[in-house]
Design goal:
mainly beta; 0% helix
Length: 73
């Protein structure tokens, strides 16, 4: 099975609600973050729209966009 190249469009006459688009998360150097798996950390590197390098104290991890499970504190 392959992933569709574009999201399905919502027709205005549809009886179903339009899908909710999640806001894009942006992180900057030095931001404090919380990650569901790794815990508390600090952003030490940013690749705009691609990934963020985070120092969690005992380890460093590269978290790819859409940064699932990571929130800015």
């Amino acid at each position: 099975m392959t992933k569709p190249s574009a999201p399905r469009r919502h027709l205005p006459t549809s009886p179903f609600k339009a899908p909710v688009v999640a806001p894009v998360k942006h992180f900057a150097l030095g931001d404090r973050v919380s990650h569901d798996q790794y815990g508390l950390g600090r952003i030490i590197g940013v690749e705009d729209g691609i990934a963020a390098l985070v120092d969690f104290g005992s380890r460093q991890a590269r978290i790819a966009s859409p940064y699932t499970g990571m929130d800015k504190l």
